């Protein structure tokens, strides 16, 4: 299933104090350069673009050249029922146009790294690797970042992984109070 | 002597480094008092000079995003203020705005002004802790007690209004949890009006203190280009000369109706960040005063009963009110299918919750884009080539909250 609203009116409804529109000229250029692109708006008005994995770096390079130089966020929305279950979400920001842009792409568990384009992508991609188990090809230092180095088990933020817990050792307390 | 010791030690975390090296590898943290939490830095030192600095994070990772996703939308609110414990109301606000964007619901005027007031009080609170502990790291102990004194005043105000000093959970999707009483507003006004005098006191202690100036200026340089490339936001970005403030550029909660400046500094060093934060406190005081002046009367909850329960007074005569209350507290809110990300300016920079809903009462994804995570990534660049003794000032100037870095 998809998490996008089906009605276009709902897609346009959003926080009225936060009107985020791509500049019209940029929208036209984008349509000409990437005709296959899926696009829409999130409920707060940010434009999102969904691109096929092979074109991800091309699109990122293209938008970076047009002012989206600030890499703000990268995360995954996991949908286990789909084969390409990991939807990567990159959030970019243009300091000139003052608007956000969300780039999405669906992944089977591997994606090209953006670190050569955006220095800030380093830690964000490591976080996604750590918590979702998505590998970024070309990342210079793809190691765990938030979880302990000796962590065992499936990537914990995948939606088919239960929340889990760690048993607490009460041995000391038992000895102390004789219970 | 240290050279001899270092040559026999294997290089930390690296099997490829030669056995004999002229540099010393040490760990700073995660229990070091000046790392502001559980930050660990793997340092490579050449004498006193930092050759490389690798931050190791994750010691405070609690999987709070997973925790929020395993509960319903209402239960996520108390998790948000635990992420950044110096900015609880700001985090509540960021989450509330994102969920409200999903619902597309309108917030009453009084709640909007109240939110601005509370968010700015929280900003002053956070900057007070920053000034106090940051100067304490450099040995200026007195200022800490002055800052804690005023912070106590703010926490008392929070306690009176929300019932909690730090974990407030007061700004909720749909408005405020409760109304602000006239007595509270009066006390708030008393405090806010006295604040500029207190800020003068801090400045008298620090801004012309030759030791403080000498220690802070010219270290931890982060230029505008690097700051933008690394996704850095907040006072770090403004100290690099870029007047980017989400409150100005993308106003939320009616920030466009308030008169305030965005302080910047051109020095791009630790001292610049100090000046920016002190000036920001003064701007926050101005915003608080304006908010108290224009505080309208009226409800503090949205009339959309699918977002927030009706007031208790309606239960006496309205069956629908009871049903709404029951449905909300048994099933939780059900935001329409969609996704949203609304950014706010936290004391540390751009903060936003990326929320995804599938129409059910359980969120599909709640991801926090916290400013500390991105800002901390810049530390490697900021301390390279500097002195080890300056590193504590650089860490303090970033103002990382490890709860927000590790989540």
Structure description:
- The complex is a heterodimer of chains A (179) and B (407).
- With 179 residues, chain A is an alpha/beta fold.
- Chain A has one domain (9-161): Beta Polymerase, domain 2, CATH 3.30.460.80.
- Chain A is built from 5 helices and 7 strands, in the order ααββαββββαβα.
- Chain A has helices at 8-12, 24-33, 56-65, 121-132, 171-177, and strands at residues 38-41, 47-50, 70-78, 86-94, 99-107, 110-112, 135-137.
- In chain A, the strands form 2 sheets. Chain A has a 5-stranded mixed sheet.
- In chain A, a hairpin with a 4-residue loop joins β4 (86-94) and β5.
- Chain B is mostly helical and 407 residues long.
- Chain B folds into 2 domains: 2-56, no CATH class; 64-406, Cytochrome-c3 Hydrogenase, chain B (Orthogonal Bundle), CATH 1.10.645.10.
- Chain B has 17 helices and 8 strands.
- In chain B, the strands form 3 sheets. Chain B has a 3-stranded antiparallel sheet. A 3-stranded antiparallel sheet of chain B has the order 6-7-8.
- In chain B, α4 runs antiparallel to α5 (109-137) and α5 packs antiparallel against α16 (388-398).
- The longest helix of chain B has 29 residues, at 109-137.
- Mean pLDDT of chain B is 88; it is low at 1-12.
- At the A-B interface, β3 of A face α2, α4, β6, β7 and β8 of B.
What spatial order of strands do you see in the largest sheet of chain B?
1-2-3
Please, how many helices of chain B? 17
H-E string of chain A:
HHEEHEEEEHEH
- The number of E-state strands of chain A comes to 7
- Helical residues, percent of chain A: 10-25%
Tertiary shape of chain A: elongated
Roughly what fraction of the amino acids of chain B lie in strands?
Answer: 5-15%
Q: What is the straight-line distance between the termini of chain B?
A: 41 Å
CATH third-tier fold name of the largest domain in chain B: Cytochrome-c3 Hydrogenase, chain B
Query: Class of chain A in CATH?
Result: Alpha Beta
Per CATH, the architecture of chain A is: 2-Layer Sandwich
Task: Tell me the count of domains of chain A.
Answer: 1
Q: Which residue ranges of chain A are poorly predicted, with pLDDT under 50 across at least 5 consecutive positions? A: 6-18
Indicate the CATH class of the largest domain in chain B. Answer: Mainly Alpha
Number of strands of chain B: 8
């Amino acid at each position: 299933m998809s998490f996008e609203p089906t009605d276009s009116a709902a897609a346009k409804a959003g926080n009225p104090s936060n009107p985020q529109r791509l500049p019209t000229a940029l929208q036209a250029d984008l349509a000409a350069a990437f005709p296959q692109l899926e696009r829409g708006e999130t409920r707060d008005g940010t434009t999102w673009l969904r691109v096929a994995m092979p074109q991800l770096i091309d699109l990122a390079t293209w938008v970076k050249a047009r002012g989206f130089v600030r890499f703000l966020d990268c995360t995954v929305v996991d949908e286990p029922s789909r084969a390409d279950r990991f939807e990567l979400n990159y959030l970019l920001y243009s300091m000139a146009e003052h608007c956000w842009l969300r780039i999405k792409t669906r992944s089977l568990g591997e994606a090209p790294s953006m670190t050569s384009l955006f220095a800030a992508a380093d830690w964000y991609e490591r976080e996604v690797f750590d918590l979702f188990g998505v590998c970024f090809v070309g990342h210079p230092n793809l190691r765990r970042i938030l979880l302990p180095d000796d962590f065992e088990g499936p990537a914990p933020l995948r939606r088919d992984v239960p929340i889990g817990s760690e048993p607490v050792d009460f041995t000391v307390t038992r000895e102390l109070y004789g219970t | 002597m240290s050279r001899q010791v270092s040559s026999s030690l294997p290089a930390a975390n690296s099997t490829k480094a030669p056995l004999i090296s002229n540099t010393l590898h040490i760990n700073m943290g995660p229990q070091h008092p000046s790392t502001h939490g559980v930050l660990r830095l793997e340092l490579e030192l050449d004498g006193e000079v930092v050759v490389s600095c690798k931050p190791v994070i994750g010691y405070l990772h609690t999987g709070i995003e997973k925790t929020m996703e395993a509960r319903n939308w209402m239960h996520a609110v108390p998790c948000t203020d635990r992420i950044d414990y110096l900015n609880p109301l700001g985090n509540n606000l960021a989450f509330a705005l994102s969920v409200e964007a999903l619902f597309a619901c309108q917030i009453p005027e009084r709640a909007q002004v109240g939110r601005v007031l509370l968010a700015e009080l929280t900003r002053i609170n956070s900057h007070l802790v920053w000034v106090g502990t940051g100067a304490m790291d450099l040995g200026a102990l007195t200022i800490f007690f002055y800052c804690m004194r005023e912070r106590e005043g703010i926490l008392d105000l929070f306690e009176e209004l929300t019932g909690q000093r730090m974990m407030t959970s007061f700004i909720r999707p749909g408005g405020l949890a409760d109304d602000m009483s006239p007595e509270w507003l009066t006390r708030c006004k008393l405090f806010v009006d006295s604040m500029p005098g207190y800020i003068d006191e801090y400045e008298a202690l620090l801004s012309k203190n030759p030791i403080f100036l000498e220690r802070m200026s010219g270290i931890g340089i982060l230029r505008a280009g690097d700051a933008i490339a690394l996704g850095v936001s907040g006072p770090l970005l403004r100290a690099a000369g870029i007047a980017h403030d989400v409150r100005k550029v993308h106003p939320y909660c009616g920030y466009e109706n308030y008169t305030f400046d965005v302080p910047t500094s051109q020095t791009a060093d630790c001292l610049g960040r100090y000046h920016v934060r002190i000036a920001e406190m003064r701007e926050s005081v101005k915003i608080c005063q304006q908010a108290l002046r224009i505080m309208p009367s009226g409800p503090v909850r949205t009339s959309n009963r699918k977002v927030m329960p009706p007031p208790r007074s309606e239960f006496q005569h309205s069956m629908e009110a009871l049903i709404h209350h029951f449905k909300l507290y048994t099933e939780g809110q059900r935001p329409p299918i969609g996704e949203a990300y609304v950014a706010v300016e936290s004391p540390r920079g751009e903060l936003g919750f990326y929320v995804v809903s599938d129409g059910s009462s359980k969120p599909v994804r709640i991801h926090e884009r916290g400013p500390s995570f991105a800002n901390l990534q810049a530390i490697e660049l900021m301390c390279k080539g500097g002195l080890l003794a300056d590193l504590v000032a650089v860490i303090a100037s970033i103002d990382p909250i490890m709860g927000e870095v590790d989540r």
